[in-house]
Amino acid sequence: MNVTVIQGDLLDQDVDVIVNAWNRNIIPWWLLLPQGVSGAIKKRGGTGPFKEVAKHGPMPLGTAVLTSAGKLPFKGIIHVAGINMLWRASERSIRNSVRNAIEVANDNNFQSIAFPLIGAGSGGFNQAKAKEIMLDEMQKLESSVHVWVVEFKKH
Fold first, then answer.
1. What is the pTM of this model?
2. pLDDT in tens, 24-69
3. Secondary structure of 53-70 in the HEC alphabet?
4. Span of the secretion signal (predicted)?
5. d(CA 131, CA 39)
6. Domains of the chain
7. Are 122 and 83 a contacting pair, CB within 8 Å?
């Protein structure tokens, strides 16, 4: 698997699909005030992807669901349940999220995917450790998809 780590804005990447580090999808999306990546997706892409992911119902921790990209220029958004009911990420939730997002990308013949640092925002996980776990998990996977891991650009 070809993996590139960059700093920048996830929504500005030239890829087929992006990953949204989401919650377990139990609380209705319209009751939440999406922050970080989810907030940026809602602001620039509209509410469509969140209405679609809500139709899938509760998501087991670490699973992945594909939706449209709304008004964003991607072929889709892969939402991963990267945080638990207490809004916290774990090594297991990060690893499973990476594995399942890559599987969805493979199943849909996407050529490229961009990940944020799963769990490092509202999930409260250490950014450096989240990146280390994600890269380690990606090394274990076989895929022809090109992966970008996008670290938030510090201003």
1. 0.93
2. 766 655 555 566 788 889 999 999 999 999 899 999 999 999 999 9
3. HHCCCCCCCCCEEEECCC
4. none
5. 21
6. 2-152 (3.40.220.10)
7. yes
